[in-house]
Amino acid sequence: MNMVLLSSNITAQEFLTPVLLSLRVAFIALVIVLIFGIIIARFMARNDFRGKIVIETFLMMPLVLPPTVVGFLLLVFFGNSSVVGEAIAWLYGDTIIFTWYAAVAASTVVAFPLMYQAAKGGFLNVNEDIENAARVDGANRWQVFFRITLPLARTALITGALLSFARALGEFGATIIIAGNIPGRTQTLPTAIYVALQSGNMRLAWAWVIVIVILSFFMLMFIRVKANES
């Protein structure tokens, strides 16, 4: 099956490689933004302090910055001339630039604002009186968070998670700058589609487009179903 040609110069295995890499990158990015998005959103939803607007604006910046700018900033941040880049190279013997880890970093940064905004909205909609009542009844902070807050904000969190996954899956601009487009190593679905278009292979481009459209359609449909249920 893997040796069946999908076009004049690509096998089924080569066709699936960017699909599977994109799913892996998007899933890891989702786990990261889910953890940090929930933690930061919870803190920001329940606390007021000087500079909060500035911090929130910074967190939301990837939504409005061109992806190429995000990629450039990540390239500088993780580059060999930066403190972070030097630390990574010292620990692991090499930089993450032009590896699939760089694609995860790019997808995480561009997807984070969607998770943060959805989670914060969900937490703001949770009635604090319910949480306070649980504390009066003897529940500690973690019990209140996991048994009261998270279940009440569940719909918003699911929506944010799916939107973040879809955004990570479709990331192109930042990824191609920091991770490049190395077939079998860093070539994700969006970059593979770009290369197929550049080479005039419309059949292959259409095949990858159909895959990403189907994945995105079902994720958005699931969000709509959950929204209607709530």
From TrEMBL:
PANTHER family: MOLYBDENUM TRANSPORT SYSTEM PERMEASE PROTEIN MODB
A GO-annotated cellular component: plasma membrane
NCBIfam families: modB_ABC (TIGR02141)
The organism's taxonomic lineage, starting at the top: Bacteria, Bacillati, Bacillota, Bacilli, Bacillales
Presence of the UniProt keyword Membrane in the record: yes
Parts of the chain that traverse the membrane: 20-41, 53-78, 98-116, 144-166, 205-223
Entry keyword annotation includes Hydrolase: no
Topology of this chain in the membrane: Multi-pass membrane protein
Locations listed in the record: Cell membrane
Family that this chain belongs to: Belongs to the binding-protein-dependent transport system permease family. CysTW subfamily.
All residue ranges annotated as the ABC transmembrane type-1 domain in the record: 19-221
Name listed for the protein in its UniProt record: Molybdenum transport system permease
Listed GO MF terms: molybdate ion transmembrane transporter activity
Listed GO biological process terms: nickel cation transport
Keywords tagged on the record: Cell membrane, Ion transport, Membrane, Molybdenum, Nickel, Nickel transport, Transmembrane, Transmembrane helix, Transport
Superkingdom field: Bacteria
Alphabetized SUPFAM superfamilies for the sequence: MetI-like
Biological function: Part of the binding-protein-dependent transport system for molybdenum; probably responsible for the translocation of the substrate across the membrane.
